[in-house]
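Run folding on both entries below.
>entry_1
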Amino acid sequence: MAYVNAYQPPPPAKPAYGLHGPVPYDINVAFPLDFAQLETPRLKLVPFIPSIHAAKYHAAIPDPVHFYRYYPFPGMEDPESYLLFMDAFVRQNPYSVLFAIIDKTTPDPDYPEWGGKLAGTIALLNYSPTNLSVEIGVLCVLPTFQRTHVATHAVGTLIKYCFTMPSASQSESGLGLRRAHWYAHPDNEPSLRLAARMGLEREGTLRWAWVLPTGKAFGKTPRKTDLLAGPGRDTAIMAMSWEDWENGAREIIMTQMARIE
């Protein structure tokens, strides 16, 4: 039987705009976002807009190699590569969105209109309207705000939004999801402890889930005859279901957020 294989790899996609994205900036999100629900008395989540937030964000990271040491993606340490990656990985995916975390307890005299100081990022990734699930990721708390209320409030606010049922008449409304999950490097103990403290349960480990960039630390050595040179990485899976949320996890999160007041 005769056949052909005419596949040709597509050329690399080049966005028709600069590093700061399209103008006006299009967050390109295909699921409901109610920013009134993404705010506490101490913190709020807003769209990460590169032209507004990127310079402050990168300037607050004195050691990018250490800051991104557990991330599997290449080039995040370089501000330009970071912005290109986040545009391709997050903004161009209508089921993902990157938030800037604004700490309302710390004013920023340079940007009083922000209502606080930029404290980091967090994202919803690969939202599935078919399976009612989403990943919580890209949690990057800037060094000045680590070991404060920021991580607890950012994660708690987003999880609450994920599991609260949609409502047009009640003060609390959300996405009404069945599942939210969290991926972490198995050696990233602070990330795993935070997820556990917020009520997520360890579901297992995806072994050899990533091929890391060559030279990346915290990787596993591949076989000598491997097709790629980069080390490997396992991924720990933490998750919460709607059953967890309704059977105690909501109270866990509210308690954690109250303790960090």
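>entry_2
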Amino acid sequence: MEFPFDLAPVLGERFCVVDQHLRPAGRRGPAHRGDLEQQLRTVIDELGKASAKAQGLPSPVTSATRMETNRHVLYIMRDTEGRGAPKGAVIGFLKVGYKKLFLLDRAGAHIEAEPLCVLDFYIHESLQRHGYGRELFHHMLQSERVEPWRLAVDRPSGKLLAFLHKHYGLVDAIPQVNNFVIFEGFFSNRPAPPRRPPPKRPEEQIKPYSLSERDFLREEAEPPWPFNLSPGRAGGSPVRGSLRPFLLRRDLDGATEPAPPPRRSSSLGRVGR
């Protein structure tokens, strides 16, 4: 894709990486900075329109305005050899970004993840099937330090699915309820989500006297030695026994001796009057 201005100061080397700040690669001083930024916005908008047309989308998903409002990264590949284009040409672009998604594994369990997502991918029609798409995709994988099966692809076209199958062997897709597609191996060696500890009960819910009550209930009255010995173990270590012998002994010691019954007078001792 050709443009009416020189792409070298706008995109720099063969691969140009653009984020939400939309900073051109050229360093020509502040006087030309505004012109380079506007030219970069033009390149991004035209690439987004071409990609939407190739995929049959009603509107572009890539534009300079969208780049400013999202934390996405745009990899632009430029033709540095200048074949038939004295001012250079753009071969294609690849847009990626991290998104928080709720995905399904093979067992149907919901898993929250934030993978790197392929959001838009386009190679100019006249330059397809020349290895440029693989070169651009491989450069992105190396820059982001990610394996291809770790990616989530947003609404991939048939051409993109065939591309991933041919160059990276991604065939077994895991069905999802959203527009993203993930492949076998996406959940392998992925760390499990951390478990939250149970909430701690506030200290004010424990009454001040509850601890003493528990200690009192836990302790039982124990009779003195040798009544705390178990039957048949004379000289053994004190153990808990029945309280009955101790209580009977205590009652007998505290009781007074009963008074003898009054003596009845014999009738022989009486004198008749």
